[in-house]
Design goal:
Shape: globular
Distance between the termini: 72 Å
Number of helices: 3
Strand content: 15-25%
Helix content: 10-25%
Number of strands: 8
Radius of gyration: 22 Å
Order of helices and strands: EEEEEEEEHHH
Strand order of the largest sheet: 4-3-6-7
């Protein structure tokens, strides 16, 4: 059986970085976790951002993440496949994205069976698409867009940035940044 992820091409340790979320995409903050890769285990805490951020051996392809959500209860366990996801143009890529978004659809095996159709219908209903359970181009692109939006870095809205194509330079003689007419230095 083909894997849902491709091996990472980096030649050294790689970083596994994920946010632990509940079914409503809320973040599990300040929770103990254990990441097990082969015979090695790494203990940590998800902190303020609900983040698991660890370096792992480049050859690692599988890991187990256990997160203790409440004191005295058994941990929640996730079996992870490490690498990069297959493209969303493949059934495995769509299944892996659905699973990562919390739409349980059975094994990531490339077979879009009844469980995958149920997950597709749930996704379509949650994101304003007529729930047909079919993997059409519109649903495929919406799954990828939602998945990518969950991966993006925080917005830098309100942070000054130079205009595209124009470099900001500092100089002592003001040649790089000439004075603006009507504005005087004090």
């Amino acid at each position: 059986m083909d894997s849902a992820v491709e091996p990472c091409p980096l030649q050294q340790k790689v970083r596994i970085r994920l946010v632990v979320r509940n079914h409503d995409f809320g973040v599990y903050t300040h929770k103990k976790y254990r990441l097990t890769i082969g015979s090695a285990s790494i203990d940590g805490n998800t902190g303020d951002r609900g983040m698991v951020d660890q370096l792992v051996p480049k050859e690692a392809r599988k890991a187990v993440l256990k997160v203790w959500l409440a004191e005295g209860l058994p941990p929640r366990t996730w079996n992870l496949e490490l690498g990069k996801l297959k493209p969303p143009s493949t059934a495995q890529g769509v299944q892996a994205r659905l699973s990562n978004l919390g739409f349980e659809q059975g094994p990531v095996d490339g077979d879009a069976g009844a469980e995958t159709r149920q997950a597709l219908m749930a996704f379509q209903a949650d994101f304003g698409i007529e729930p047909s359970g079919e993997l059409d181009d519109g649903t495929r692109s919406r799954i990828d867009a939602v998945y990518r939006s969950r991966q993006e870095a925080p917005s830098l809205e309100g942070v000054w940035r130079p205009k595209p194509g124009k470099r900001f330079k500092r100089s002592k003689d003001r040649t790089a940044n000439p004075p603006v007419p009507g504005v005087r230095d004090k």
